[in-house]
């Protein structure tokens, strides 16, 4: 879409990340759209036989904490405790990046050098900001436009976001108009 390639001229093939390199090698596919660490694995395997480019303005990834509305209403203290733990982790990552990389590499069983390569593309921040709301709405428009749902109207995502927990433990991290 970003380069005005008609999706009718592209054949989409769903592959698992560990199948992509072989599919490129054999000519089964010409290109992939993927994420890290798969990008690094493909770059290492393809070397000069591949080109990698990023569409940083095309894709933003948010890691969201999700809980049922009933749980949140009945357990606000647990929500705050969990958010404080995330904030501690955020501080730890910023103060101890090398130790953080080592822990992540160990946990996901990947060589730390791969974590070192991709570390800079991440922003480690506990926040509720307007970008999340914009992304949710953009994805919903895309899903509706491409008829991937029977729904035809935009939900009000503000009805599903619990602001009180983060406001209680770090008010300045709430940067969403509501």
Key terms:
178 residues; 2% strand; 2 domains; mainly alpha; two-stranded parallel ribbon; 8 helices
Report on this structure.
This protein has 178 residues and is an all-alpha fold. The chain folds into two domains: 43 residues, no CATH class; 107 residues, no CATH class. The chain has eight helices and two strands, in the order H-H-H-H-H-H-E-H-H-E. A two-stranded parallel ribbon has the order 1-2. It is flat and about 55 Å long.
The count of strands amounts to 2
The best one-word shape is flat
Helix and strand element order: HHHHHHEHHE
- Give the helix/strand class: mainly alpha
Radius of gyration: 20 Å
Low-confidence stretches are none
Task: Supply the number of helical segments.
Answer: 8
> How would a textbook summarize the main sheet?
2 strands, parallel
Number of domains: 2
As a percent range, the share of strand residues is: under 5%
Q: Overall mean pLDDT score?
A: 89
- How far apart, in Å, are the first and last alpha carbons? 31 Å
Strand order of the largest sheet: 1-2
How much helix, percentage-wise, in residues? 40-55%
Question: How is the topology of this model organized?
Answer:
Elements: H1 20-26, H2 38-46, H3 69-74, H4 76-95, H5 97-108, H6 112-118, E1 128-129, H7 130-145, H8 164-169, E2 174-175
Parallel strand pairs: 1-2
Helix pairs in contact: 4-5, 5-6
